[in-house]
Amino acid sequence: MEEVKQHKALIVVLAVIACFRPLMNILGLSAQIGQPMASVSATVIITLAWIATVVFVRIRQPVVVLMFAGIVYVILAIVLSAVLSPILTGHLQGPITNPFAIVGVLVTNAVWGIIAGFLATVLMRVWKL
Questions:
Q1: Is 90 exceeded by the pLDDT of residue 1?
Q2: Transmembrane residues, as ranges (predicted)?
Q3: DSSP states of 51-111 as a string?
Q4: Can you tell me the distance from the alpha carbon of 4 to that of 14, in angstroms, rounded to the nearest whole number?
């Protein structure tokens, strides 16, 4: 957990970067680009940015850091959805309306962070960083 305390700011920055994906949906950009291509492309770009960042910074435990980035991202995305959906659509939407969805989204994004962290670890070992 020392790694998490040491890199709190980085975790938050990575989570904010990931908020680009729900913002694309909220602003209608995903619909204009076309689904599922928009979501898949955004996820790939965000994942590559996360991996590149932890490799560049040489994080000792990228799996832990990126797992927490995924969890913080979920919290930010839920808040973003809860605040913006009533303004944009007139009613509350998103995971906040279903507690089971919150658990599913948390688990999914924690696993996303773990997988990205594992890929970063492999790259760091291959490149001997």
A1: no
A2: 9-31, 37-57, 64-88, 100-123
A3: HHHHHHHT-S-HHHHHHHHHHHHHHHHHHHHHHHHHHHHSS--SGGG-HHHHHHHHHHHHH
A4: 13
Mean pLDDT of the chain: 94
What is the C-alpha separation between 88 and 72, in angstroms, rounded?
24
Question: Hey, what are 101's tokens?
Answer: 């969805």
SS3 assignment, position 27: coil
Buried b / exposed e along 16-29 (16+ C-beta atoms within 10 A): ebbbebbebbbeee
Residue 61 amino acid letter? Q
* Residue 26: predicted pLDDT: 80
Note whether 44 and 55 are within 8 A (CB).
Answer: no
CA atoms within 13 A on the CB side of 13: 8
* Alpha carbon distance 1, 62 (integer Å): 12
